[in-house]
Amino acid sequence: MKDLILGLVLLILAVAVLFLSSSFPNFVVRGERLPGPKFFPTILAIILICFSAYCILIGFMKFFKKPREPLEQKKESEKIHMVNVLSVILSVTFFVPVINFFGTVLGIILLGAALMTLLGIKWYQSFIYSSLLASLVYVIFQVLFKIPLAEGTLFSFLVR
Amino acid sequence: MRRIWILVVSLTVLSGLLLAADYPRKSVTIICPWGAGGGTDRLARFLADELSKKLGQPFVVVNRTGGGGATGHSAGAYAAPDGYTLTVVTLEIATMHWMGLTDLTFDAFEYIAQVNEDAAGVIVRANSPWKSLKDLLDSIKANPGKYLFSGTAAGGIWDLARIGMLDAAGIPVDAVTWIPTTGAAQGLVELLGGHVDVVTCSLAEAISQLQSGQVRALAIMADERDPRFPDVPTLKEQGINWSAGTWRGIAVPKKTPPEIKAVLEKAVLEIANSDSFKNFMNTNGFGIKIRNGAQFYEFVKQQDQDWKHVLQLGGYAK
Amino acid sequence: MDLITRLLDPSVFFPLTIAMFFGIFVGAIPGLTATMAVALIIPVTYYMPPIAGLAMVLGVSFTAIFAGDIPATFLRIPGTPASGAATLDGFELSKKGKGSLALTLDLFCSALGGLIGVLLLILTAPPLAKFALKFTNFEYFWLGVFGLSMAAVLSKGNTIKGLISASLGLLISTIGIDVTTGYPRFTFRNAELMDGVSFIPAMIGLFGLSEVLKRVQLGRKVMEIPAISEKSRLNVRESLIAMWKHKFTIIRGALIGTFIGALPGAGADIAAWVSYGVEKNTSRDSSIGKGSLRGVIAPTSANNAALGGTWIPALVFGVPGDSITAIVLGAMLMYGLRPGPLIFTESKDLIQQLFGVAILVQILLIPIGWIGIKAFSIFLKLKAGIVLTSVVFFSIIGSYAMRNSFFDIYVMLVFGLIGYAFEKLDIPLAPMILGLILGRMIEDNLRVGLIKTKGNFLPFLTRPISLILFLLIVFTLIGPWIFSLFKKHASK
User: Fold this and answer.
1) Which member of C43, C319, C452 has the closest CB to residue B179?
2) Does residue A121 sit in the same domain as residue A85?
3) C or N terminus of chain B, fewer CB within 10 Å?
């Protein structure tokens, strides 16, 4: 099943690359047509198509050999805790809007504490550690190296 | 309803005046479109220091690199026009949009002052047969397609300087082949290794190789000779009407209040005329060229048109 | 004697020590990288005497490259891109409870490799630089291919997926403005993508975030870090014995590292992978990749030696050997130094002091590195939730701070997801990284070379150095196979 998915993803990707690179201009120097911008992507796309064909083939063979896979009985250690994975992904995704609203320090404290709590830390410990983390980031980047961190719209009226 | 409008308008005008009156009241950001350690970065940090001393608030340099300068210039142009975001604009503002890399044009900025200009040079190996630019151009005419030029990426400033020079000398621009590199330093290594024949880059970038006698400059693409290289003739002396080079200056987003612009222009020009500035520019090998806001705007406008023509010749214009 | 007193002068020694502690911190925190540390520290050094400023840069870079191996060994997350290869055997050893042995060995080999690199820099800079001048597009092309062939070596037993991974890396490297023609490829008119996918955020995502994702999916009870139950102590005796036993691995690693570092554009990260690949390919030790001491020694001697190597073209030509020396060169101009052949005579004093500092750094690396290992093990005593959350936020800030770009945070996220998906599909990561690092080198040099020869491929094979490199690649790929064939024949 994994091989089938991989093969299909590669195929879609390769076709998209072929399509996009077909519009790249040719490259002519002193009347000679030389490998241009599309040369490399095209070759790579063709290679990927070969690999995807291989993967799809393997995938089908496995599929027919074992038409019915036994229902997987996973041990606790092998179970995937999708909530944890999603919460990490979401906290990265919403990092920018959050710090743009709350400011970098408060943003890291809030998001960090939330993430730590979700990962099984007691809530008051989460707040202590995420505050430490936020102050570390603030001291190193803003104070020491003068990298501008977002101030946040929430408190912008205080600055003006 | 109308009263509210009047109130709103007068409040905005008033707040604008108030903002300008005691500018700057908080720290000011200077956007540098190029990376830490580079020439533009060093210039930006020097100006930031001097401006902090002069205006009493911290001026902080922020490197916004990427897109061959497009990222930083866009960030600077689309910042709030309150005078708290300045940009070190470089020559790329006049070329990028013709190449289709960005929609941003020079018109998105209002100009404070120009402080630097570095003209392109024509540089060959010390042991090359060419003693003057005329020798080189004659060889190119006699053997079109034989010689390799280098100095930067395809469509970069030194490539364009080369195209403009050949065109002004009446030679077809494809009579020599451009070997793209990541920058002048790599181009000079190719030249030293004997892998290319000519490098067109600023004399300042080649200063250590020039001083050690590994390479020789045949000409400089400027209106006047460079005082640091008095023996290098200009193109104009040899009857070729062409000058080209990089330049740097300070700009602010459009619609910045004129009072703030005046404060900044006065401060930057004072710095540019100081001795410490001259010292700084000398140790870093930068050429000094000072233009005030109005002159700088006219200059950039002119550059924008000049480069359009050259980019079309080179086949880079979109 | 005079030199020593001047180096131990507080005006040099103090900033150097501070810089080295900062280097340990930045290197050991996944998400914060050596290049970023140097980029941050350079503007500070503008206002210092040249030797103090350059000492800070040397201190930060050497210590950060070592410290990157600490989380690579304990957490399987490299602290800097150059430590990617250290995640393989170092972590395996750590799982077996030999983490502190691996790190002690790593520390000593880093210092020794760094020392060899610096000595080579001092002794051979001018001739080596002259030799490097002979290299042009044809040679750099094969060099890139050689590096890429390590992908095949690294993914033995899973070759097809390794090649898929490498191809995807190469494909991603084509994003951005094409240097040869100035044409923007696959950028969708996004200015942030014009210079290509930002390399450092991509690395942080592939190694840092994806590892966090892998760990948190295990759930609360099992995601705890394979606790360093052993007492972390300096295993000096064992390490020295191992070093003596594998002395040739150290020397080979350091030589490969210095040479690759000396080539403009190739730095510590490539050096570490190539050294590891060479070791794996030539050694009959089949335990490499499963927790072998050789697998720890080879990359770590190479990446610190490479730092010395990168200064060779920087000093001799003013051409950066990697992203760190690229930043340093600007600072040198700021001090009124003109890198070039003449710098060795014109600024003789300063160069001597610089070399002196570089050697001093290797000596100081051992105590400061040890403090770093200690401090990191204390950090690891915290609950996994806290450690992993910190890694996530440092990854975010580290991606952002490289060029103050929010866009790069999302680049990091995307590559984190790619790394996670690769793990699920059993695709190795290392080949993709090689593809990412080397793609531009291979493509641009092939195409520019063809411009020089008007489309003729023959010079790629007929120039002497090119030919040697080509044969080396052929030998690397089919050599072991032929060797085993002979052996079978002989045993019959």
Assistant:
1) C452
2) yes
3) N
What is the nearest CA distance from A160 to chain B, expressed in angstroms? Answer: 9
Give domain status of residue A126, yes or no: yes
Domain membership of residue A153 (yes or no) is no
pLDDT tens readout for residues B217-268:
999 999 889 888 899 999 999 989 999 999 999 999 999 999 999 999 999 9
Residues of chain C contacting residue A33, judged by C-beta atoms under 8 Å apart: 455
**3-class DSSP state for residue A33?**
strand
Distance of alpha carbon A153 from alpha carbon C322, whole angstroms: 39
For chain B, how many residues are written?
318
Nearest CA in chain B to C327: B37
- Give yes or no for a contact between C78 and C72, defined as CB atoms under 8 angstroms apart: yes
With respect to residue A88, please indicate whether it lies within any of the assigned structural domains: yes
Is there a single domain that holds both residue A86 and residue A46?
no
Q: What CA–CA distances, in Å, run from C346 to B27, B284, C350, C351?
A: 41, 17, 9, 9
CA of B191: how far to CAs of A99, B216, C134, in Å?
A: 49, 11, 11
Question: Which 30-69 residues of chain B touch chain A by CB within 8 A?
Answer: 60, 62
Provide the phi-psi class of C176: left if phi over 0, else alpha when psi is between -120 and 50, else beta: left
Partner B, chain C 402-441, Cβ-Cβ below 8 Å: 403-405
Chains within contact range of chain A (3+ C-beta pairs < 8 Å): B, C
* DSSP secondary structure code for residue A37 in this structure: T
- Structural domains present in chain B: 2-117+246-314 (3.40.190.150), 119-238 (3.40.190.10)
Q: At residue C176, what is the residue type?
A: G
Does A84 lie in the same domain as A42? no
Token output for B153? 């990426």
Strand-strand pairing, B148-150 and C176-177:
unpaired
State the residue range of the domain holding A122.
79-144
Same domain (yes/no): A46, A90: no
Boundary residue ending a domain (A20, A40, A65) = A65
User: Which residue stretches of chain C have pLDDT < 70?
Assistant: 1, 129, 221-234, 264-265, 319, 340-342, 491-492
Contact at CB, B64 and C405, closer than 8 angstroms: yes
Measured in angstroms, the CA of C367 and the nearest CA of chain A are apart by 24
B19-57 residue pLDDT tens? 556 788 888 999 999 887 778 888 999 999 999 999 988
- Asked if C108 contacts C74 with a C-beta cutoff of 8 angstroms, the reply is no
Whether residue B24 has a cis bond before it, omega within 30° of 0: yes
Q: Is residue A7 part of a domain?
A: yes
Q: Retrieve residue C46's tokens.
A: 């503008």
Same domain, A54 and A88: no
Q: In chain A, which residue's Cα lies nearest the Cα of B147?
A: A30
Set of chain A residues whose Cβ sits within 8 Å of the Cβ of B174: 29-30
Cβ separation A36–C181 shorter than 8 A? yes
Same domain, A61 and A85: no
The ipTM, to two decimals, is 0.91
Q: Tell me what the pLDDT averaged over chain B comes to.
A: 88
DSSP C262-331: HSTT--HHHHHHHHHHHHHHH---TTTTSS-HHHHHHHHHHHHHHHHHHHHHHHHHS--SSHHHHHHHHH
- Asked whether the predicted pLDDT for residue B15 surpasses 60, the reply is no
Q: Are strands B288-292 and B109-125 parallel, antiparallel or unpaired?
A: antiparallel
How confident is the model at residue B11, as a pLDDT?
Answer: 56
- Who wins on pLDDT, C428 or B87? B87
More confident of the two residues B68 and C310 = C310
* DSSP strands (E only) in C308-446: none
Q: Smallest Cβ distance to B177: which of A30, A147, A148?
A: A30
Total tally of structural domains belonging to chain A: 2
> In this predicted structure, what is the pLDDT of residue B38?
77
Distance CA C311, CA C327 (A): 12
Residue matched to tokens 């909530």: A83
